[in-house]
Amino acid sequence: MTKDDLVPDQVTYTSIIHTRLQYGYLKKGREFYDEMLSKGLSPSVVTYTVLIHGHVAKGKLEWALIYFSNMQDKGILPNVITYNALVNGLCKERRIDEAYNFFAEMKEKGIIPRRNFGDLPDEEALIISFFLFEAGCIK
């Protein structure tokens, strides 16, 4: 992958992984992730979020959960985008209890989805309802 003495960095690998996953080449995306690790490069929260979102988008939720676990094992903190991808994927699979658990974990860590519902008393229920609606679980 190197040419003219240019060596890919973590950002380059993340971009390549994103492109592979976006076009449905999940195995290739995983291979580039493995290559990145073998070169001694550390994935960032963006790298893991790309992997999680890409696998969720293609219906491979278990892979997304593995990457989420790997991310946490390496001490990389998920952000709101990472959690949103997981919660949406879980809702699409109708794994509502797990989706709610991740939502509660977000709240516990002070990571709240940026949805503007004003000062409504039950904002949490509205946010979960939004995820369920977007995932097609409710109409």
From TrEMBL:
The major lineage groups are: Eukaryota, Viridiplantae, Streptophyta, Embryophyta, Tracheophyta
What PROSITE patterns does the record tag this protein with? Answer: PPR
Q: Which NCBIfam families match?
A: PPR (TIGR00756)
Q: Supply the Gene3D superfamilies for this chain.
A: Tetratricopeptide repeat domain
Superkingdom in the source lineage: Eukaryota
Q: Which family does it belong to?
A: Belongs to the PPR family. P subfamily.
- Pfam families cross-referenced by the UniProt entry: PPR, PPR_2
What's the protein called, per UniProt?
Answer: Pentatricopeptide repeat-containing protein
Q: Does the keyword Zinc-finger apply?
A: no
Keyword line? Repeat
* Signal peptide annotation: none
